[in-house]
Amino acid sequence: MRETYLNSEELLDKAALDILRQGLVPGLADGRALHYNQRIKILYRLDDLFSVEERLEELSLDQVCGIGTQILDKLIAVEAQEGLVPDNLVLDMSGIYMDESGCVTAVYVPVILPEDPLIEPIYRKRIYALLEELLEKKEGGETITEEIESYNENNFGDWNALKEALNRSNLS
Q: pTM (2 decimals)?
């Protein structure tokens, strides 16, 4: 079970919460909102799942690349889903979960973010940082990390190109 607290009900994006509850984006954790001490508590059922952070050491480079590809697939699906904001996807090691077979589940926090045209969406930078963090401790991961850094500089935000870079690891 994972919990997130909101200080006000006005921060809760009820439409996004409904999308999570209906499972319209596969691989996003189902969230439930409860009133708790004058705040909103969002609970995610993550039974039989473990965080990637907990298991990273025992995963192979190919498994880590597969996790990265699945995370990118979820990011692409969130970008395509009307009513969801990619910045609300938890893109850190403790917010990515997987089951024993390697299927990834991501956490999405359904909050209303203030609109500011001057702020660049932070999720684009966070995805690169997450992929690099996943790969940095794996033997052979340095080569893929260098390629990811190159995509960051030259094809920023091209998630399919990043997936190709991760999939090439399986060919070596």
A: 0.90
